Amino acid sequence: MPHLKVIPFDTTLLEQKVASSQTMTFVATSSTGKEMLIGVEHGGEEFLLQLKPDTDAMLLKYDKVTRPLKVALLKEAIALVAQELDLQILSSNIATTNTKTPLSSEYFKKIESFEGMVYPKEKLCVEVGFGSGRHLLFQAKKNPDTLYIGIEIHTPSAQQVLKQIELQQLENIWVVNYDARLFLEMLPSNRCEQIFVHFPVPWDKKPHRRVISPSFLEESMRVLKKGGRLELRTDSDSYFWYALETFFALPKAEVNVHKNEALEVTSKYEARWLRQEKDIYEVHTTSLQDSPCKEETIDFNFNGVKYIQGLEERLPLKALVFEGYFVHFERIYQISGHSVVIKCAFGSFDRPEHKYLILNQEGCRYFVSSPIKTSVNFQAHQAMVAQIMLAKGE
Ligand SMILES: C[S@@+](CC[C@H](N)C(=O)[O-])C[C@H]1O[C@@H](n2cnc3c(N)ncnc32)[C@H](O)[C@@H]1O
Question: How many angstroms separate the alpha carbon of residue 93 from the centre of ligand 1?
């Protein structure tokens, strides 16, 4: 990832340089005084750069939490900041190249883009954990009138399938590189024809990591239109029985079971199990009713929360664990005595959010963007507001 190694310089002059800069917006210093964050505005995007001491040098580097998707933008910003600060470069890896990364494909969708999304097709299907993508690509090719949203947590698999989408010139697949258990919350109610979950990892010893759970099922039923179905295929008989029990706990649903039913396309995992002559179980759960529309009650405002002197000393820096979510104020950076930047992690244990908060005398906001609108993030947000108020003595 882009960085420059530079000769140590006098950082006390940074604030003065920021004031006349075209690129830098603020500078914030950690409580140890050694690490700094530099706010940057470049190419229409806001993000942070980090300035850290290194052996006999300083590192000016990207910030993992706020980095823009376009690496070229990051490299340009690092070069501009180095130029404005007149830094003496010892080594660099920011030479710009024109190679297009697969995640910059138009078919790659960030989870944030699903807020208020307008779908280009009436018919929508979702595949959870598509792996090599054989089934997803096959379905999309066969049904050009349907939009297929593939969700895969493993980035190299998502990249491989994005390459295949380009090669096969398919225009009806979107790839989301995220945890499917949280992603479903972003979809509207009564919209999906089918949700495919083929050969999820059974996680025999870690049931909390399984895709199929009562809350996943509840969200699937909300997202599916009346008559739409969730299709689970598994080679694990214990996962099959566990899923069946979960499906039968639904108040109203049609559940069908098939054994060793061949599909038109065999996925990579299925091919392996078939070679080993394993049984394949398939469970279909059909939604039998319309679900209420999703209420938009999630609001990440900090209504009236403002910085007061000394607040940073009273914020708990240890992770706070609540039922189903956590909040962790990881590090606090000071901006010129009357504002702070707080690096925090929060939300679900499996897929935590990492964000910065900018807290000043006018108010508080997430930098650079609000968290993803999931219910656990909202619960965590409310807990963070409560902790800041507590630290203020309110
Ligand atoms: C055993 S593989 C099966 C892949 C493919 N469906 C097939 O049949 O060949 C399970 C896949 O699910 C993905 N996965 C596991 N948990 C996930 C989650 N919570 N959200 C999205 N993908 C997940 C894994 O990365 C992996 O690619």
Answer: 34
